[in-house]
């Protein structure tokens, strides 16, 4: 892409960054619009916009058009992401929601399995634009199925939308994440980066003050008084941070430190989503029978154990041991995600399902961005500390530097998982008293 568009790599990276920024900026708005005007209506419109955005992304017409097209695609994605869990919760009866949410998790994991392989196959034989164009027929099929299968909206509040709050929240997200992404590129002490982060902080303070005062805010802060909701959202955030520690560091370990070819490293890492695909719907179905609290706790224990396993990986560790822990983190996520989503969606009123789904999706995106940033920061800071000099990339002559940094990074990741596990365990014990 960088070569075709005749742009430097740092500019090409904004094709990914702008997608994440736009999604985070709009999730709450579309969650609220789903509550007000119908989640299924917003979901259908989002599917159409995502497909149009994908089509436009496929045209090789320069960076500006590509960024605009990615923004359209991200708007559509935000509309579907903020409403899908709410639709499931509203359409399925209470005793079937866990299984349905588990199926959603399976399809997400399935996408992560197919995506890299299909993308690699496309790049091997066709122009990069087809990575986006392949979404078009899939999107058209989804639109047709949605029109035929999805029922009419059940809950429509027609509540007035807090435009000021929505705008302020978007400003917070855009300036914060633009600052983070730009800071990783040029350094966090640059005036432009500090300025963006300062704007984000000021806008956030104003946003909170306004949301506490108005009658119908874009974000009902009182929703966080619900302990089940808040704990589940917080734990989801932490686990996505930990997952992206793994996603960032493990390719370095397999390809650079262990010398695996990219395709074989990809096969090894696919153990994670493959196991999750199998386990998630089973866990969801079991949670419908016994309740979700115990399963979330068990899942978090498994994820935590996997981080301990990664802490002891070395240059001579048999690869089957590494793959065992990759499978374990997939199993743990499969057990954890659907029951945790059930707790989130079942802990709010029907009129707030859209905003709850938006917050849940936002936690996932936050976790992903924080995980990517934190993993690279911890990894290379630790490597620099060990080397006694600044290290900004993998050094083939010193693989032991990477191993030491990796162990520190996964120690941090284990601590993150442990916090989630302890909080969930305490909640479970209190519930059983």
Automatic annotation (TrEMBL):
One of its GO terms (molecular function) is transmembrane transporter activity. Its main location: membrane. The keyword Transmembrane applies. It is found in: Cell membrane. GO terms for cellular component: plasma membrane. It comes from the Bacteria. Coiled coil: none annotated. CDD domains: MFS_MMR_MDR_like. It holds the Pfam family MFS_1. It is a multi-pass membrane protein. Keywords: Membrane, Transmembrane, Transmembrane helix, Transport. The keyword ATP-binding does not apply. The chain crosses the membrane at residues 12-30, 42-68, 74-94, 101-124, 130-151, 163-182, 188-208, 229-249, 261-282, 294-313, 319-336, 366-388, 408-429. Residues 1-432 form the Major facilitator superfamily (MFS) profile domain. InterPro entries: MFS, MFS_dom, MFS_trans_sf. PANTHER family: MAJOR FACILITATOR SUPERFAMILY MULTIDRUG TRANSPORTER MFSC. This is Transport protein. It comes from Companilactobacillus crustorum JCM 15951. The lineage of its organism: Bacteria, Bacillati, Bacillota, Bacilli, Lactobacillales.
